[in-house]
Fold each of these.
Amino acid sequence: MADALSCPQMPYPLYTLAVYNLGADRFIRLAQDTPGTTFYSSLRQQFNILKFRPGVVLASGDEGSSETLLVPDWYRELPMTAQQLLETPWGRDYLAYAQMYGPYVVDIS
């Protein structure tokens, strides 16, 4: 039974945690609020899900205009879906689990 609940490299308890974290990230991105509620839209706003991010901040100063963006090598190799996962704590947790067990878990080489 444990083999059916895990991928080849990842033990099933960690696989379960990874799947739940990925699911939370996807719910925040895709779930629609029921009429009269704003739970998911508030979370999207809190994590700036719809905000464009052209790179990773390398350095910044005291002035708002002295910000340097850099795209490091590890970031360039991430597929677009994995880059989106960096926006929420659940997505980052999922990537942490996935990267522990290699490229076959999340398409990261």
Amino acid sequence: MPKAKANWDDESNEASNSFVSWGEVGDFILGTLTAVREVASTLPDRVGEMQKVYEFKVAECRYHLLDEKKNPIEPAEEPQKGEIISVGGRKTIDSRMQRAKIGQVVGLKFVEELPAKTKGYNATKLIKVFFPKNADGTPEMDEEWLESQKEEKDF
């Protein structure tokens, strides 16, 4: 067995959280939709249900992680251009994302927190979905990323 690299587990080498948590109004992601997956929900009242997870190649992004009491942690996370991040689906996001195509440029923004309709539940985070358009009105596609996917398939 090869010897482990020294200091591989140094704190500076730790992978950052790549799952957007929508910690503060104004948090956003603008990027290329690269994949849509379905995973089993981890929410106690949704056991057995499947949840969509959207993966994006970042163009611009800023979001806040949450502490144990669900308060935003400063400073905000700012993934670098080209990093892959994930966004968990929910009814409002899923209904709008049905029209998105893999390779399309998509924006999501946390615009408002609405009080919970049921006592004891968390407030509802209103996330708006945006589909940037080209000058001719067609959806903006990440042609460079799409081409790279064709090249990978050719291998």
Amino acid sequence: MCLEGEHSTLYRLHGLGLPPDPDSYDGCISPEGDTQGFLCSLASDLTVSSSSGCGIEDYVTRVVRMLAQQWSGSPLTPAEIFQVAYDAAARLSQARHGRVLLAIVRELRARGWPINPWYFDLPGPLIRREFPEIALPQGPPPALVQSLEAPPFLVPRPARVPVEADATRPLLLKASMDAYRIPFLRGLFPDARLRIIHLTRNPAAAINGLIDGWLHHGFFSHNLAGRTALTIDGYAGWWAGSWWNFDLPPGWRCLVTQPLAKVCGAQWAAAHDAILASLPGQDAQIIRVRAEEVLDARRRPCVVAQLLEFCAVRPAAPSRARIVLATEYPKPARWHARAPQLEPVLADPVIRECSCRLGYGPLPATDWT
């Protein structure tokens, strides 16, 4: 069982995001947050993959709930949104879920809800073909400050809701801010058999990917207006003075005037340092997996089989998975194009130490893809 995306949206919905303290970071959790409400919402959002798909009504209910979390300012009532989405989904019941969502968006736009399809996690060519009149945006959507979810926004997929027989299935959770919240998760699920998958990637490729994300029209996570003004060299636009991307690490105030590559390097190191510091003393099984092995077509089947065995999940028939939340199609050593920009960051003792702790060594090597 899993959510369709990250549960960071539910953290915000139930007051478990950033506390009002102006120096708080993603590991800070308000004691006034509603943990029981979080668990109830988590349970209601769970889905189970199914070859038989799901009923249109269940699918449309999830679409309407997600749109409400992603886009504010609808001129329609929830019942009206449901009916519009239901009619569009029924007409395209055999189409892929991306096309179904865009058909729903078209109908809702025609009724005055200015949803921008470019902020969904869908292939650019598909969006351009369906909405040639809408230009690729720059910066976050204007109403993002009221949104619970950060773009690129989820695209609901046909999946069934869990039933009693699914109670013994493993529950998969993934949210990048949980690098700072492992003890909190243990407290949320005190009776769970916790298994932690620590996914790593060499610092050159990982930091380069973060830079790509900061320069993308998605991945805006925190509006810091009122807390500070960002003057990050290499990060520009009307949004660049207030909108932070990805995780907000401890000590982030020291980064708001630094070059973008250094900001991304600090984010990479802080997240892994927090994970490594949290693991000792946790009653959990832990496995570390290199992204380089997952991306290697020859090694991928073995790695996936190892992960499934670790999670006590029975292998299913192989399927072609869609790449999600990517600024570009993955290719080896893409970071080489930014080598001059990355070199001073990779020479930072903090980055080198973290790289060594993760088993990559202090300097770029031939296997840093």
Amino acid sequence: MFRAAVRQELDTALGDVARCSDEEGVALERRVVAALDAWLGRYVGSMPAPDIGNLLRNPAMQLADMVDPAIAAFDARLAAAMSEKDRRRLGVTAQEIAGALHTVAQGAKYLSNARAESREKFMAG
């Protein structure tokens, strides 16, 4: 049952990420922040927030078969949101950009006490 709940939460988060990152007529920065918030911000400020990352990555929980592909799907979705023009301008691959943004946003969420605060940190980054 626990695995089913984790699977549902991962699928819900990835669906929210897809909706945010694919939103037509929205600037890249806003789509990226919304996608980061959908993936990382959903539990900021809640009681289990500080422990969720450790729980999902704990080898004893045996969730890597679900979590690792979900993380890869998130990074791929974030990378796909960036146009070729954005990537050329920055001189890096979309995957490098997505990976860096994901890593930085993970740190920002642990420095926040509320979801709105984490979104502000994502915007400032």
